[in-house]
């Protein structure tokens, strides 16, 4: 055995435990879900053990489920658009701030809520948006409204909640893309007599389109897969894909249909991940 | 400063407030004295912290979460450090593909992964009569998966930024592989490992969607206890529980800030 082969074997031995763990407890389960999604539900035996596209047909032909799919897509698209509009100026600010301290501080502020977890963040928004919540108390106090508004348990509340979850991802992704665009380009724009806003729209923005697409793709798939926000902030009248997967598999035990829903989410995620990684791995400068 | 610049600064500040304020609000609300949570409060108390701990779901959920997070962190370090080492320092067949597979738990949506692992555990139970759903072990395996990508990313980054020169020098001086690892590599990547441990812990402690499918009666985690409670109640008790979680994660982040530059490496 040559030294080359020995090193390869040692390398393999070291990655094997992690690789086996992920393969056995993530990849194999995902394969199982793909298989289950092609099976047919049977009330007595749970599954018939056949191959059929019935669940996918049901998803697009049943008005209720189709509505859930389309509604989830709409909410995800809207949240993504808002995140890009709100996140871009912030990312640009962070990227162009000259003080390393300020930069670090802003990034920490951005990712801090992200790390607190979905349950805590949803709870916080519920405290703010409830009928007796902070938002209503402030608006009543300021005399903007006479009666408390119903904010919690509406699609609007879900969008607000999702934007707060997704904005950190948007800002971080855009900021790293903007970092790669040299500041000398803006100086060139300004020396040509462009206003800061004009420079922004005619020089920086066109160059960062790929970054916006990548950030948008990440946001969109995170929103499609959201669970805590639609359940807690949306309430029982807001139906989205994530909670539906849980309900079908855990509560109704319609495993084949639940699996099909999970596969649709997986497919959306895979597509978006491929889009964003191809865009981000290509170098523009 | 121009007017436009002032508007811009105000906008950035507003977004930062939008991101952080909810955390401040829920911490504030945890001290309200009123039975029904309303703004502004009529007075302040710390009684809800005691009440939260008296509720079995929260105290038991807290203990389970800590236990799972600690064990899962150890697990993901045990398998993740050797894997990162092999990928960065040794030759591994299909290196790029192996790396992608090990990072996969970060990319697969948690709700999908949870459904998949749950169905897989049930299938496993049918085949072997060994129960994994609603058990500590089942939860632990899933949470270990969650930690592996964090370990991979942070330890790999630490290995890359520290080159391999010191190891080569040690080996040319006659150190064997184990000596090189424990005496040279390990001290060099120590901060990467600590960061990996803290982030794996945070990822596990706050994990919600994956655990949703895997918990059972008397074996819930803290985030699950929180959302179960929120389905029917919204009061200072839940705000107190959320505050405890915020403080724990905040402490972990403060510690990790000493070892990684959060502003740069995130």
Task: Describe, in short, the structure shown.
The complex is a heterodimer of chains A (285) and B (266). With 285 residues, chain A is mainly alpha-helical.
Describe the fold and architecture:
The complex is a heterodimer of chains A (285) and B (266). Chain A is mainly α and 285 residues long. Chain A has one domain (63-281): Orthogonal Bundle (MetI-like fold). Helix content of chain A is 77%, strand content 1%. Chain A has helices at residues 3-37, 54-61, 63-96, 100-115, 118-129, 134-142, 155-179, 184-191, 196-207, 209-224, 228-234, 241-251, 255-281; strands spanning 41-42, 46-47. A two-stranded antiparallel ribbon of chain A has the order 1-2. Chain A is globular and about 75 Å long. The two termini of chain A are 45 Å apart. The mean pLDDT of chain A is 88. By secondary structure, chain B is mostly helical. Chain B has a single domain (56-265), classed as MetI-like fold, CATH 1.10.3720.10. Helix content of chain B is 77%, strand content 0%. Chain B is built from 13 helices and no strands. The longest helix of chain B is centred in the first third of the chain and has 34 residues, at 56-89. The radius of gyration of chain B is 22 Å and the shape is globular. Chain B starts with a helix and ends with a helix. Chains A and B meet through helix 1, helix 3, helix 4, helix 5 and helix 6 of A and helix 1, helix 3, helix 4, helix 5 and helix 6 of B.
The rough form of chain A would be described as globular
Looking at how many chains there are and whether they match, the oligomeric state comes to heterodimer
Assign a percent range to the helix content of chain B: over 70%
Strand order of the largest sheet of chain A: 1-2
- Global morphology of chain B: globular
The string of secondary-structure elements of chain B, in order, is: HHHHHHHHHHHHH
- Overall mean pLDDT score of chain B? 88
What's the β-strand tally of chain B? 0
The CATH topology name of chain A reads MetI-like fold
The domain count of chain B comes to 1
Task: Give the helix level of chain A as a range of percent.
Answer: over 70%
Instruction: Give the radius of gyration of chain B.
Output: 22 Å
Note poorly predicted spans of chain B. none
Summarize model confidence as the mean pLDDT of chain A: 88
Characterize the largest beta sheet of chain B: strand count, sense, and whether it forms a barrel: none
**Order of SSEs of chain A, N→C?**
HEEHHHHHHHHHHHH
């Amino acid at each position: 055995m040559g030294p080359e082969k020995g090193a390869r074997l040692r390398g393999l031995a070291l990655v094997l435990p992690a690789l086996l763990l992920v393969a056995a407890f993530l990849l194999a389960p995902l394969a199982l879900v793909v298989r289950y999604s092609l099976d047919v539900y049977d009330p007595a035996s749970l599954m018939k053990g056949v191959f059929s596209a019935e669940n996918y047909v049901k998803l697009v032909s049943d008005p209720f489920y189709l509505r859930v799919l389309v509604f989830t897509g709409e909410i995800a698209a809207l949240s993504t658009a808002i995140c890009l509009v709100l996140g871009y100026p912030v990312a640009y600010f962070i990227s162009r701030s000259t003080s390393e301290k300020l930069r670090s501080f802003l990034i920490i502020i951005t990712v801090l809520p992200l790390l607190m977890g979905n349950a805590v963040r949803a709870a916080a928004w519920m405290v703010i948006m409830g009928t007796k919540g902070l938002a209503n108390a402030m608006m009543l106090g300021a005399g903007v409204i006479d009666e408390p508004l119903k904010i919690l348990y509406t699609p609007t509340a879900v969008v607000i909640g999702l934007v707060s979850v997704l904005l950190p991802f948007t800002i971080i992704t855009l900021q790293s893309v903007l970092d790669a665009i040299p500041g000398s380009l803006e100086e060139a724009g300004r020396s040509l007599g462009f206003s800061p806003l004009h420079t922004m729209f005619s020089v920086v923005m066109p160059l960062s389109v790929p970054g916006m697409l990548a950030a948008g793709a990440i946001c969109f798939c995170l929103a499609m897969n959201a669970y805590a926000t639609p359940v807690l902030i949306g309430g029982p009248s807001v139906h989205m894909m994530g909670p539906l997967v849980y309900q079908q598999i855990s509560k109704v035990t319609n495993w084949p249909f639940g699996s099909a829903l999970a596969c649709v989410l997986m497919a959306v995620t895979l597509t978006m991940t491929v889009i964003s990684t191809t865009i981000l791995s290509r170098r523009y400068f | 400063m121009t007017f436009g610049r002032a508007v811009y600064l105000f906008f950035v500040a507003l977004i930062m407030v939008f991101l952080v304020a909810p955390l401040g609000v829920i911490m504030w609300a945890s001290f309200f004295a009123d039975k029904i949570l309303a703004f502004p409060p009529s007075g302040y108390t710390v009684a809800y912290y005691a009440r939260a701990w008296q509720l079995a779901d929260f105290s038991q959920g807290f203990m389970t979460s800590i236990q799972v997070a600690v064990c899962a962190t150890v697990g993901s370090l045990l398998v993740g450090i050797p894997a990162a080492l092999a990928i960065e320092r040794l030759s591994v067949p299909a290196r790029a593909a192996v790396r992608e597979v090990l990072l996969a738990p970060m990319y697969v949506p948690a709700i999908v992964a949870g459904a998949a692992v749950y169905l897989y555990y049930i299938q496993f139970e049918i085949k072997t009569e060994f129960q994994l759903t609603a058990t500590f072990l089942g939860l632990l395996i899933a949470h270990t998966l969650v930690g592996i990508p964090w370990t991979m990313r942070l330890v790999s980054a630490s290995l890359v930024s520290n080159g391999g020169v010191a190891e080569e020098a040690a080996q040319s001086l006659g150190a064997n592989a184990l000596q090189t690892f424990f005496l040279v590599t390990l001290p060099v990547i120590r901060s990467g490992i600590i960061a990996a441990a803290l982030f794996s812990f945070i990822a596990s402690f706050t994990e919600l969607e994956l655990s949703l499918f895997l918990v059972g009666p008397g074996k819930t985690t803290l985030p699950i206890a929180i959302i179960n409670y929120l389905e029917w109640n919204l009061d200072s008790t839940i705000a107190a529980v959320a505050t405890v979680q915020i403080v724990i994660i905040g402490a972990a982040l403060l510690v990790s800030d000493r070892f990684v530059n959060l502003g740069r490496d995130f």
